[in-house]
Design the sequence.
């Protein structure tokens, strides 16, 4: 197998919502972890060295999640964490699940599978702003509602959901709450979330792919998806993915530090403003979510063009953006998130997502804005679309 | 492996002969109802030769590229050449298309054939492109 050369240093990567580059600390932790070959469950020194590293790593992830070490369940990524929360909750019971139409497919497909098993599922649509109205969640709650699953921020639009209000409403009704925090870990504080289950994925905040975690708050328990040797306190069997866990822990420590840095937060908001202001010199530009949003994610539609074509033109110039969820890129169907918000199919297909991260510079944003403005103008001339007036 | 050949990238990043030709005496428009790709050619044909030719297109990158490529192939050539181009020849000219892009070669062949047919039959009022948004 030939491994392609690394991305050129002048690549402008604005697709952090799909995956973030491995941060230096995570890379170093993975490299150091290569020497820790012992099985953390073994009694001998080699095993205990791995065990000690695992405990330390668990503590770093627990700090990001705001929980005890015992409440962290390492999984094979965000999707598995979500599946563990949902399937684990309904493994031995029927009842009612409430979720929303803008969830990641890991939630929606899991909900569909549960529905086929007899779980009653209610899917709440978002408002045109991209946010879910807690009152609509409250109206859907029933005496047999077992679980409410809502994302902290949407992966396509960045719209931050009122998860605390939803959590209070659900708890008052006697329901459990799962928060999909895959898009907010490292961007917004998640350590204070009052939910019973919180899922995260390492590669969204600078860790490796294939490793995630579920915060399973005491005293709740879940039926595991994977049975075996009793690792993760019996909640997820299988010898621990040590390299992934060590990389995730280092990224979590870096993310926790970043979250405490108010200057970094202000810089992120300035980058968003610079990006949005720069694109708005074009007419026919629409942002697809109102505040509150995670500053790092900008979903924007340009009248008269196709988002996938714009993304290809930018890619040819070394600028990586997405047409929406990376999981759905390449599909012809419009975004289920945008269409659920009431966005027309045409506008949904005219959408790109630009998402940045800690490594993004002002120069990156300026270059991307200039290239996007030029590309949109050219594509509109190609399609013969006349658009006037800045939005 | 890159998703597009260098020729395709060249044409969708730097499309040639954009627009509608003022004073065109032949127009040809085709649209793919499934994917929504649309191409409009406007040409001035004099003595059977495509003296000038412009295009408008709405669609995926590859469809824009083949439309642009088509104008460079046909400009200065006998209009009858347009009627002889088939999807295989257009794909060859692009330097290769991925399986999910090959429909654009057929689209380009269709609009080229229509240009030749419209010239032969004296039709010059094909609908102009109406972009989807």
Sequence:
């Amino acid at each position: 197998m030939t491994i392609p050369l690394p991305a050129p240093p002048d690549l402008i990567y604005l697709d952090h919502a799909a995956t973030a580059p491995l941060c230096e600390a995570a890379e170093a932790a993975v490299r150091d972890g290569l020497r820790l070959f012992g099985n953390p469950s073994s009694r001998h020194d080699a095993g205990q060295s791995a065990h000690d590293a695992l405990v330390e790593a668990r503590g770093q992830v627990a700090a990001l999640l705001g929980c005890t070490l015992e409440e962290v369940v390492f999984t094979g990524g965000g999707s598995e964490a979500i599946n563990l929360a949902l399937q684990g909750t309904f493994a031995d019971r029927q009842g009612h699940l409430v979720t929303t139409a803008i969830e990641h497919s890991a939630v929606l497909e899991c909900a569909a599978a549960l529905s086929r098993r007899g779980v009653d599922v209610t899917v709440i649509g978002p408002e045109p702003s991209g946010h879910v109205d807690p009152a609509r969640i409250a109206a859907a709650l029933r005496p047999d509602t077992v679980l409410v699953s809502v994302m902290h921020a949407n992966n396509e639009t960045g719209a931050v959901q009122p998860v605390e209000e939803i959590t209070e409403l659900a708890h008052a009704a006697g329901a459990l709450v799962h928060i999909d925090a895959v898009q907010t870990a490292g961007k917004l504080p998640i350590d204070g979330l009052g939910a019973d289950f919180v899922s995260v994925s390492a590669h969204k905040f600078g860790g490796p792919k294939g490793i995630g975690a579920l915060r399973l708050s005491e005293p709740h328990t879940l039926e595991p998806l994977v049975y075996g040797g009793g690792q993760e306190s019996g909640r997820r069997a299988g010898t621990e993915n040590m390299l992934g866990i060590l990389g995730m822990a280092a990224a979590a420590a870096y993310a926790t530090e970043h979250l405490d840095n108010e200057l970094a937060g202000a810089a992120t908001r300035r980058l968003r403003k610079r990006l949005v202001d720069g694109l708005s010199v074009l007419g026919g530009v629409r942002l697809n979510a109102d505040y509150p949003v995670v500053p790092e994610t900008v979903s924007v539609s340009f009248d008269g063009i196709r988002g996938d074509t714009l993304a290809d033109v930018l890619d040819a110039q070394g600028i990586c953006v997405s047409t929406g969820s990376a999981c759905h890129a390449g599909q012809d169907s419009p975004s289920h998130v945008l269409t659920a918000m009431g966005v027309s199919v045409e506008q949904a297909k005219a959408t790109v997502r630009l998402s940045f991260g800690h490594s993004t510079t002002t120069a990156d944003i300026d270059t991307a804005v200039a290239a996007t403005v030029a590309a949109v103008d050219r594509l509109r001339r190609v399609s013969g679309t006349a658009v006037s007036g800045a939005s | 492996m890159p998703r597009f050949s260098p020729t395709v990238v060249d044409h969708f990043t730097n499309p040639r002969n954009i627009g509608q030709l003022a004073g065109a005496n032949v127009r040809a428009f085709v649209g793919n109802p499934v994917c929504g790709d649309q191409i409009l050619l406007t040409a001035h044909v004099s003595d059977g030769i495509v003296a000038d030719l412009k295009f408008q297109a709405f669609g995926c990158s590859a469809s824009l590229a083949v439309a642009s490529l088509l104008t460079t192939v046909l400009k200065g050539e006998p209009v009858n050449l347009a009627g002889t181009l088939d999807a295989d020849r257009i794909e060859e000219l692009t330097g290769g298309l991925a399986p999910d892009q090959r429909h654009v070669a057929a689209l380009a062949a269709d609009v080229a054939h229509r240009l030749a047919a419209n010239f032969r039959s004296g039709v010059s009022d094909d609908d102009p492109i109406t972009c989807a948004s």
In short: The first helix of chain B runs from residue 6 to 13. Chain B has a mean pLDDT of 92. The domain at 6-121 of chain B is CATH 3.90.1010.10 (Sufe protein. Chain: A).
